[in-house]
Design goal:
The complex is a heterodimer. Chain A is mainly alpha-helical. Chain A contains 17 helices and no strands. The chains are: A mainly alpha, B alpha+beta. Bound molecules: protoporphyrin IX containing FE and copper (II) ion (2 copies). One copper (II) ion binds next to loops of chain B.
């Protein structure tokens, strides 16, 4: 493929041969370098991705073969029940699956792994503004990993209050079996994730505002950076609420405050001593964070996808500024829609109407983004590389996730579909078919920068194809279950006459899910193999414009071996001003004034 | 290969629509894989209508965007296209157009649904200008529904209440109001066949209402995670004609008042 126009001197070496143990630890373990920290996040989150996926298979096994022994691993794991999943353990399975996927995979892989790796490189800086804080943000994930890991050690082996941890179930010790130590560990663990994210978020905001290369105005930033920037702001405002609420719940559990417990409870024939609180208060506080959090889980993906699509359509992004405004619009509105999780919660129905209207409004900027992606591929020269396929599937799948959101925003319809598989379908389309696919695409895209080698394209395409098929097989059918009213979180939904006939459909979904998890072996193999045997590449294997591609692959300590100066926005593909079909941000304009095209600076 | 991938993406709207049509039509393999029988009368029917309306609307957008998406991938495949890349940065007019059209559509849905929502959650049926009294009080408890019928005096919480567990009998063709509560954790009172769902919150009292138009036995589902036994918190709703309901209630009262210590006839 093509190489950059700029070919300055090579990067300096990161590691001299014969490194001492101390040097090794400071270079790879307690590293202050944003790239190493980014990779640490990446490896940790990918491992947890595996854990989360296996937990999901546990859920699916039970729904396909209720109360039947799990082959092979059943006897090992639950010898007491003779190889079956108990209803207690089932509550653990879906609670921990969601917790792991949200708090240990999607949020830290976007902000922690890609945020860390890409932000300084894409803005032409040598590192984050606060490298030590950055290192801490990674190491503060470890208490969380350990606490959540420990919660698996106490019966029933993991928290069982749902990832939303609604009181009184999650607070009263006797209300749920998992409500003893696992639930307390869960709360503490989630708090540590919050601390980690908070450290990241101040770092990202400061870095993006302060450390941009000369010439890199805000409106010349790649959309990835815009999205990370807005996400950091979201985190900064929303997280403290969750942290505070989490602490309140913890004190409710451990020292008997009663923020979330009303008077007069009788649980398991005994009366908890506290009272005077209100379960709905928790829901408000929880969703005040967790609704914005779903944007924390999608906006960076949207940014990365925009960059990938523009690069492989070889065409400027359509409507750069509207894209920036819609990211901001989604973020702003994201703060006033949390109540749409609470339409049937017992909250005042009049309040439901206002949340309905704000929720409808938030569909707008999302629609604008989809149209702009379509506008970007129109009239391009599309290269179907693996990253591009994943990015395109993000758009295709996000359309489904976005449209199913309208059903839920319509309050009367939500009465019926709330807490059914329709919801499960919706958020898997947004988070898994959307965000996780964007993450795969981004790994394939930035891998050559991270490791100086390409991933295998053929394996990548097989990985994409199978994941895409199985994913839709698993989740699309969930919409149909939802239409029947099939409830989520039931260890045995077939107890109800209304849902008994849905077993074969569930079996189909389970086999698709097994296929999907198995397919990831191809990815893991490709990822590891390519680190050692992948094709070695230069700085800019894809012929892309943004700054990170001007640095060596992988970039050495301090990132750039020259001072990047920025002359234009990152989406100048197919510009008539140059002969190549791309035009790096650092490439000076041609000397010949006749060739200079007056490109509008994104209007 | 580009053409292959474009076709793969074309399969999304095609198979997607097919799955929905298949389910709606109830063709073999997907019998009863659609909205369950609606016996909730006019109010509940409106919820279904709204669902179908949104399904139609989103279906059209789904097909349109899916086909356009496919077409662009097909036409602008780098291996096939001979045209130069169209170098432009966007269009202000288009942005305005495609913001206003969805905005108007969404606004329409928002207004259109308000009445249905109000019927379901705000406008409790009235008798003589006063909110209708509940026919029974239902208390969620791990893992059962305790039901207390108003009895002869029509008031819940008096001496002549009738107590049952998981066994809800109700008359058809009239507005019934139920008072729901919880004594321990959150539950959710879900009657799929009349499109009623309401979380049951400890410390709060809430009302649900509906008017069923068919007799029969239907499920009461718990739709909010309430502990390990959540899946088995199943209740039964039996819908009867008014006369049958009265008879049943009377019989239930008799059974309840018979003490096992009372001398039986003949002694
Ligand atoms: C290997 C792919 C995955 C499979 C097969 C899978 C499967 C499932 C299933 C069957 C449930 C339903 C639990 C219930 O009964 O409510 C569920 C819940 C959930 N999943 Fe996944 N999932 C996968 C990936 C993901 C990813 C990537 C995320 C990222 C955020 C995610 C987030 C969630 C959440 C938030 C819930 C809700 C759990 C709850 O009910 O509280 N899942 N998943
Ligand atoms: Cu319940
Ligand atoms: Cu329940």
């Amino acid at each position: 493929m093509s190489t950059t126009a700029i070919q300055p001197h090579g990067g300096h070496d990161t590691h001299a041969p014969g490194m001492s143990v101390g040097q090794f630890i400071s270079t790879y373990v307690f590293s202050l370098d944003h790239k190493i920290i980014g990779l640490q996040f990446l490896f940790s989150t990918l491992l947890w991705f595996l854990v989360g996926g296996l937990l999901a298979l546990g859920i699916r096994w039970q729904l396909a073969y209720p109360w039947q022994d799990m082959p092979v691993i059943g006897r090992m794991l639950f010898s007491a029940e003779g190889g079956q999943i108990s209803p207690e353990f089932y509550t653990t399975l879906f609670t921990m699956h969601a917790t792991v996927m949200i708090f240990f995979v999607i949020i830290p892989i976007l902000a922690g792994a890609f945020g860390n790796y890409l932000i300084p490189l894409m803005i032409g800086a040598d590192d984050m503004a606060f490298p030590t804080l950055n290192m801490l943000s990674y190491w503060f994930m470890w208490p969380a990993f350990i606490l959540i890991g420990m919660s698996f050690l106490f019966p029933p082996y993991g928290a069982g209050g749902g990832w939303t941890s609604y009181p009184p179930l999650s607070v009263v010790w006797d209300a749920a079996p998992g409500s003893h130590w696992p639930q307390s560990l869960w709360l503490l663990g989630v708090t540590f994730v919050g601390v980690s994210s908070m450290m990241g978020s101040v770092n990202y905001m400061t870095t993006i505002i302060q450390m941009r290369a000369p010439g890199l105005t805000m409106f010349r930033l790649p959309l990835t950076i815009w999205a990370m920037f807005i996400t950091a702001i979201l985190q900064a405002f929303a997280l403290p609420v969750l942290t505070a609420a989490g602490f309140m719940q913890l004190t409710d559990r451990l020292i008997g405050t009663g923020f979330f417990l009303p008077d007069g409870l009788v649980v398991n024939n005994s009366a908890p001593a506290t009272g005077g609180g209100q379960p709905l208060l928790w829901q408000h506080l929880f969703w005040f964070y967790s609704h914005p959090a779903v944007y924390i889980m999608i906006l960076p993906a949207m940014g990365m996808v925009s960059d990938i699509i523009s690069c492989f359509a070889r065409k400027p992004i359509f409507g750069y500024k509207p894209m920036v405004y819609s990211i901001s619009g989604i973020a702003g509105l994201g703060f006033i829609v949390w109540g749409h999780h609470m339409f049937v919660s017992g909250m005042n129905p009049i309040l439901g109407m206002t949340f309905m209207v704000s929720t409808m409004m938030i569909a707008l900027p999302s629609a604008v983004k989809v149209f702009n992606w379509l506008g970007t591929i129109w009239g391009g020269k599309i290269q179907f590389t693996t990253p591009m396929l994943f990015a395109l599937s993000f758009v295709s799948m996000f359309i489904i996730g976005g449209l199913s959101g309208i059903f839920m925003a319509a309050t009367p319809v939500d009465i019926f579909i709330h807490d059914t598989y329709f919801i499960v379908a919706h958020f898997h389309y947004v988070l898994f078919a959307g965000t996780a696919m964007a993450v795969f695409g981004s790994i394939y895209f930035w891998y050559p920068k991270m490791f100086g080698r390409m991933m295998d394209e053929n394996l990548g395409k097989v990985h994409f194809f199978l994941t895409f098929l199985f994913l839709n097989g698993t989740f699309f059918t969930m919409h149909i279950l939802g239409a029947v009213g099939f409830p989520r979180r039931l260890a045995d939904p077939y107890d109800y006459d209304t849902f008994r006939h849905l077993l074969p459909m569930n079996r189909f979904m389970t086999w698709c899910a097994i296929g999907m998890v198995a397919t990831q072996v191809i990815f893991a193999f490709n990822f590891i193999k390519s680190m050692f045997f992948g094709q070695v590449v230069g700085r800019n294997p894809w012929g892309a414009n943004s700054l990170e591609w001007a640095a060596p692959s992988p970039p050495g300590h301090g990132n750039f071996d020259f001072q990047p100066i920025v002359y234009r926005g990152p989406y100048e593909y197919g510009s008539p001003e140059v002969d190549t079909d791309f035009y790096p941000q650092t490439q000076p304009p041609p000397a010949d004034p006749a060739r200079r095209y007056k490109a509008p600076d994104h209007h | 290969m580009g053409r292959f991938w474009s076709l793969l993406f074309l399969m999304v709207p095609i198979v997607g629509v097919l799955v929905f049509v298949w389910a709606m039509a109830g063709w073999p393999g997907m019998v009863n894989h659609w909205l369950p029988e609606n016996i909730g009368g006019n109010e509940a029917i409106w919820i279904d209508r709204l669902f179908l309306f949104i399904l139609g609307l989103t279906g059209v957008i789904f097909i349109a965007t899916g086909v356009v998406f496919f077409w662009f991938l097909w036409a602008y495949d780098a291996e096939k296209t001979t045209q130069p890349v169209k170098y432009f940065h966007g269009s202000h007019t288009l942005e305005v157009v495609w913001s206003i059209i969805p905005a108007a559509t969404l606004l329409f849905i928002a207004i259109f649904q308000m009445k249905v929502w109000a019927n379901a959650k705000l406008e409790r049926p009235q008798v003589d200008g006063l909110p209708k009294a509940p026919i029974a009080e239902i208390t969620g408890r791990q893992f059962e529904w305790r039901i207390r019928y108003a009895g002869k005096d029509g008031i819940v919480g008096t001496q002549d209440d009738i107590l049952k567990v998981n066994d809800l009998h109700l008359p058809i063709n009239e507005d019934v109001v139920l008072l729901i509560k919880s004594q321990d954790v959150l539950h959710s009172f879900f009657l799929p066949h009349v499109r009623v769902k309401q979380d049951v919150v400890p410390g709060m009292q809430q009302f649900v209402w509906f008017k069923a138009n068919r007799t029969g036995k239907y499920d009461i589902v718990c739709a909010e995670l309430c502990g390990w036994g959540h899946y088995k918190m199943r209740g039964r709703m039996t819908l009867q004609k008014r006369a049958d309901f009265d008879k049943w209630l009377e019989q239930a009262w008799q059974e309840q008042e018979v003490s096992s210590f009372a001398p039986s006839a003949g002694e």
